[in-house]
Structures are given as structure tokens and as C-alpha cells.
Amino acid sequence: MSNATVHIPVLPKEILELGNPLPGQRWADGTAGGGGHCRLLAQRVGETGQVLAVDRDPAVIEALAGTLGDNVVARHASYDDLPEVLNELGGAKVHGILLDLGLSSDQLADRDRGFSFQTEGELDMRFDPTSGEPAWEWLARVDETTLADTIYQYGEERYSRRIARRIVDRRREETIRTADALRDIIYSSVPRSRPSPRGGRRHGRVDPATRTFQALRIVVNDELGILERALERLPECLELGGHLLIISFHSLEDRLVKYAFREDPRLEVVTRRPVQAAENEVNVNPRARSAKLRVARRITPVVEADPYNYGLVVRNK
């Protein structure tokens, strides 16, 4: 991962307005990525505050080392393990948690990671290359029905059966090990244009490979499972009145966040509808086009164990 890449954080104005980080507060960025949001929060909490930067990708933590201020602490971990990370650092609650569930530009640009179908690198797709199964191995062993269901469910791809059949046919001949090899199979399976009502043909805005690559990335990294666990666990990390801000980039994530915020008695929904980027931001940062921000606030008192064994201690009542 290159240190030279400048990460442009999505929805910065909205994050500051809705999360309202203040000097002296303690915040956590559970998806540190290129560090754009970390820097934003670190500036707001100031020298008397602290930002905990967490990421599953060890390359992210390595790249951020020494590039952020003294009020930022970086740790290699998954964001659903934030309670354990906070315990290791003393157990204090935080005033806010931010999650940006999208890929960073560094990850997409890394030709050896296989996140982008525009590269020829190995089809790895793991956020943490030190653990789990790379995408090409999963693709080599999964049965056709499961593969088709995965592409349909996680990629919302209407041609999932056709794509799965072509993949299975090809892997009988050779292992599908690179991003461009998978891309070419998808291109041969999905019509790249559709009839126009006015005659001729028109191309869709989304590349035919996008949805299948998204589906594989989600299953390889257990993205929805980790998000579900985080939605259950992270409210307990918040101080009373603390904010949980989550930026999602596709409908599956957004639905999980929406329903979890609505049903969790520990939380009060701050954003009744997802907040999206204004046109001027999208013009500068096209990645922001599909970003949806939802925010909730901790409303139940923080309950902790009594060190003197007299029962439970309720703080922030």
C-alpha cells in the first residue's frame, strides 16, 4: 500500500455535524483505511482528545504509522472486535464510533490484492491477507448452486446462474486465479448493453463485473457477518449520548444498519433517512455517490461491574 495516496473522506461535513466530536473526547474509527476520517476526527478532538484507528488490513496500519498525530492510536483488528481493543487500552468508553464500510482507493489500486476487475493480479480479496481463505481458493471449491446464490444474494446480480455455470465450466479446465480471468468469464456471461426504447443499444452505468466482484469480496471477508456482530456489540462501547456513525455503500449493508438502529433499545435514531453526499462533493469525489450515512445515539445508561462487588454501577444517569 502506498503512503503517497491521499484519501478523500466521504461526507466529512455531515460527519462533523451529526457526530459533533468535541475537544477532549475519545473517538474510534473502526475502518481507518487511508486515514482521511481519522485526521478529520483527530483535528476536532485536539491534543487533549484521542482517536483509536482500527483496521483489518495490516497494510493500512503500517501505512498510517507515523503519518497521524500523537493523539491517534492505531491497532490491527476488525471493527467488531473493538470492545476487546478498548479493554486492552484500559477499558474506557468512547464518545463516538465511525465506520466507513467501503473499499479504500489504495486497496482498489493494489494490483496484487484482486479487489478490482481492472487489474491482472491474483484474486485474493482478503482485507487481512494474514488470515482466511483467498477468493480464488473459495472459487475453486464452492459448488455451483452456492456460488450462484452468493452472486445473487450479495451482488444482486440477475445473471448469477449463468455466471456460476461459466465459472464451473472454466475451472474444470484451469484454476481461475486472477482478477482479469474472472472478469473475462463474467463479460462472456452478461450482456454488456441492453435495447434502448429509442432504438439502438445503450450501456449501463455499472460494469458487468462489479456485482460479482462485490459478492465474492463480501463472502471472503464475511462482511455482513462482521457488520451484524458489530451492530450488536458496539453500542456497549459508547458513553451515554455517544454517536455511532456508519457509512454503507450497498443496499444489503444499509438495510442491516437501518433495522439494527431502529430495533436496538440502547440507541436512538438520529437520521430517519440515510444522509447522502451533495452534488458538489460527488463532483470532487465520485466514490461518495453511493455512500449512505446513518447515525444513532446511545440513550441507555452505561452499566459497569462494581469493583467492590456490591452489585452494578450505573454511570451517566
From TrEMBL:
The keyword Signal does not apply. S-adenosyl-L-methionine binds at residues 35-37, 55, 79, 100, 107. One of its GO terms (biological process) is rRNA base methylation. Keywords: Cytoplasm, Methyltransferase, rRNA processing, S-adenosyl-L-methionine, Transferase. It comes from the Bacteria. InterPro entries: RsmH, SAM-dep_MeTrfase_MraW_recog, SAM-dependent_MTases_sf. Its EC number is 2.1.1.199. The keyword Glycosyltransferase does not apply. One of its GO terms (molecular function) is rRNA (cytosine-N4-)-methyltransferase activity. Its main location: cytoplasm. One of its GO terms (cellular component) is cytoplasm. It is found in: Cytoplasm. It catalyses: cytidine(1402) in 16S rRNA + S-adenosyl-L-methionine = N(4)-methylcytidine(1402) in 16S rRNA + S-adenosyl-L-homocysteine + H(+). NCBIfam families: 16S rRNA (cytosine(1402)-N(4))-methyltransferase RsmH (TIGR00006). Specifically methylates the N4 position of cytidine in position 1402 (C1402) of 16S rRNA. Belongs to the methyltransferase superfamily. RsmH family. This is Ribosomal RNA small subunit methyltransferase H. The gene is rsmH.
